[in-house]
Amino acid sequence: MFERLGRFVVHNPWKVIIGWVVAAAAIVVFAPSLSDVTNTDQANFLPGSYESVKAQQLAEASFAQANDSSATIVVRRTDGQPLTDSDQTAVGALAQKIQSANVERVTGVVTGPQALSPNKQVQLISAGLKGLPDDPLVLDAVQQIRDVAKPAVAGTPLTLSVTGDVAMQLDNQDAFETAFLIVGIATVVLIIVLLLLIYRSPIAALLPIVTVSVVSAISPGLIALVAEATDLQVDQSLQIILTIVLYGIGTDYILFLLFRYRERLREGDDRKAGLVAAVARVGEVIASAAAAIVIAFMALLLAVFGAFKSLGPALAIAVVVMAFAAVTLVPAVVSLLGPKVFWPSKSWQSTPKGSVFRGIGRFVGRRPAIVAIASGGVMVALALGTLGMKSDYDQTAQLPEDTESSQGFRDLQSGFPAGALNPTTVYVRGDGGQRLDAAAVERFAQRLRQVPGVGGIMPAGESGESAALSQDGTAAQINLLLADSPYSNEALDLAGDKLRDVAHAEAPPGTTALVGGATSLFADVRDANDRDLRVIFPVAAALIALILGLMLRSIVAPVYLMVAVVLGFFSTLGATVLMFQGLGDRPGLSFMLPTILYLFVVAIGTDYNILMIARLREEARLGNEPRTAAALAVEHGGPSVGAAGLILAGTFASMMLGGVAFLSEMGFAVAIGITIAAFVMSMFLVPSLTALLGHAAWWPGHGDVRDDPELPVDDRSPVGAAVS
């Protein structure tokens, strides 16, 4: 099939290129934008059965301002001394100044004695905002508050910082925009430089950039069309991950094709026949690798957390488009260029002798047992680091420390419980729609205040009530200030367990209590995340193994290949734990990281296994003994695996330049994971195990049987003509 496809593409390049240009233009013009189907509210990604979602629904039904936001202005003295009476008067005047600025979306600005910390170190000004934290006008309002407030305290003993959910989102947005600008430039430069070193050709270096740009223009529109048709919730992180996935697999697939094409030219094929042969050989590998990635991504549909579920089909669409481009658009362009794709280098005309990969291959073939024990031992040792892993849901820790919202949170903690940044709200409603007994609700609030870990209650009004009643009196809300950061694991444990138990058990007779707020929400996200990881990983592993089994017509090889992939995942996670929790001072890794590693290390890392096992099978079919086949597979397949792994690992490593904690973790983790997958698993562990197992590796099929036993090895396709 791929030989016929290759022949059509190579002999009709302009038809293929025009087809891609027309399709890209049509999708860009007529398809919706990805931003049109993007959702930023985490609660919308959880099923309605979770308590935090039920609490939010109750809030929206009973309290008119449930969907509104707020900004917290934290005021303190520059010398660190307690605020004086005149300072407090100045804070009151500042609140009035912000109110009188008539900033759009600001509904009210309040402060007063109740906003002064017990130790008088800080005083808070609360600005109500009409709209959700991700509303652009709400974000603009926070920036305008900063612009009004900062000059007002200039030259005084006071300093201030604006913090809270909206301020954090604003700073987060700015930090990510800066980070991705840096990372984007670094990624493109790195890919071009590495490809220049590999091919010594500017054309070959630019080919992946151009191809990925075309696919990047098409994929978002297709994803948006599917999202609209299926009511799929798309997370705001998709665009970022989508770009990285396309650059990653796109560069890999193009490398596989160019390495094979160069081999065919070195073997004496003419420019057209060599390219057809390259597409025929590499097409099967790309299709199998893409199928494994698509299955791994689609397994995310089993997730209950919608942010993960939406990534599956969206990324699968992008992978299919990229794989199709790799076997059609790229060969069409190369068909027009021919060997000039490697210009001005002449290295494609001769096979290098005494290469590093030849030496590695010979060592693997001679000492497979030692290689298997050593490479497997390194991976097991790194995997032990996962035993100390902790998940971190702290949103404030993800921001650079020099952002204003981070500084404001630190200042707030000097006078108030950390939970004052984002109170945990307990909602009470009458089971029969009856009006609530205010005294009973007040007693209930005081009982909640006694729960260990609760630092206090935010007053509901100037008279100091603990609960605010809805307009019809059938519901109440109690804002609790937790002692720990609202995003810390300790706070999540409290809001998702002990606090809920007490709230449910102690609610006034005839009422129901629900724990809501950001802390309760992330406690439910954590539960959903834990459940998803337990379900998705085994299912994806089984499905990928099935793809490998169908490709190799074997049961044994897919088993040890998947064991290697799973071991690669845990060794990557363990290495990341050792780096950030061991050598660093992080309390834990971002809760998103295991899923990110699943997407990149397990799914994309499987590409290298498929490439190497296909090469091993082909060398065996050429009549080589298992150890010789392993040596030749590493010699000829190693360069493309090594080059692809180096580029992909370097691309992700550039994310560590962004200055954002999550990007640093993600960049390091995926870079080390790809390095392990390419240079330890695929180049050492898999070939050595295959050499040790010999013919048994292909049981019950005969994948290593010579294609034509009557012909001597030298009369058939050259050893160098295998998959690369």
UniProtKB/TrEMBL annotation:
Gene3D superfamilies: Multidrug efflux transporter AcrB transmembrane domain (1.20.1640.10). InterPro entries: MMPL_dom (IPR004869), Mycobact_MmpL (IPR050545), SSD (IPR000731). Pfam families: MMPL (PF03176). Its main location: membrane. Keywords: Cell membrane, Membrane, Transmembrane, Transmembrane helix. It is a multi-pass membrane protein. Residues 205-336 form the SSD domain. It is found in: Cell membrane. The chain crosses the membrane at residues 12-31, 178-199, 206-227, 239-261, 282-308, 314-337, 368-389, 535-552, 559-583, 589-611, 641-662, 668-693. The keyword Ion transport does not apply. The keyword Cell membrane applies. Belongs to the resistance-nodulation-cell division (RND) (TC 2.A.6) family. MmpL subfamily. This is MMPL family transporter.
